[in-house]
Amino acid sequence: MTGGGALIISPDALLIKVIGLPDAEILIWRGLLTALGFIAIVVARHGRAAPLAYRRCGWTGIGVAVLFSFSTFGFVLGNQYTRGGNVLMILAGAPLIAALLSRVFLHERLPRRTWLAIFGCLLGIALIALDDAGSGSWLGNGFALLAATALAANFTLARTRPGVDMSPMLTLAGLIVAVAAGLYGLLGPGVELPSGPSLLWLVVLCLVLLPLGFTLIQRGPLYLPAAEVGLLMLLEVVVGTLWVWWLLGERPAPAAFLGGALVLGSLLAKGLVDRRIERRRRAPDAAQHEPC
């Protein structure tokens, strides 16, 4: 579920480049359209019980929404004030931050294979971002760190309510982003709705892909530790880089190919080991239930 969500949102960076709106405008329309998309998903899933799905999240859901909006602002503004490579490398630290937060607040311990996968992915992301990395600015790096920390804290907070789906509260996160960006936009020349192909891609990205993908990702903490959810989100970086190369001709450096292979290989190896361990655990139970 989490990996599928990461793949669905992987064209995010590509479509932002294609749409070509200023940061304030893309945040406003992103917030409004994703909020509509999240509402549509909640209504489709729960029908008349949709209000109950929101109420069930409680104050924890409000915290999740605020943290999700912080991660959105941090990602967009981080790319504005520092190099994209710096943002990617800092965001790759989200699984480590989530592991630390989960250990302190939830007393969750991660197996050694998960730590190995995290460090393997960190190395892979560093290779991907190497060609675009630089000193950047402290402000931009700070925004990227805000995005990584808010993302990790979001998943950790969602784990404090086992069995409660927090994805409906992403509707509120979209509204927070839209209102905050709208207040910022009042200081500029104004906000205009794009036209032509830009409008089409804006609707596809913000009304369809982001709500669907992030709904799946936000449900990840129902089944996985926060660090593993953050780890699987690194798929977006690898696949998103391939989208930009394929459709815009921005060929990655050779080190980026090696980094992408390392990220995918780490996730695949961890998945295969997890599957083997799960089968071994189920084998004794299946033997006990066999008819005599």
From TrEMBL:
Spans through the membrane: 27-45, 57-81, 87-106, 113-130, 136-157, 169-187, 199-217, 229-248, 254-273
Organism superkingdom: Bacteria
Keyword Zinc-finger listed: no
Stretches assigned to the EamA domain: 20-129, 139-268
Keywords tagged on the record: Membrane, Transmembrane, Transmembrane helix
Keyword flag Membrane: yes
GO CC terms: membrane
Pfam families cross-referenced by the UniProt entry: EamA (PF00892)
Protein's recorded name: EamA family transporter
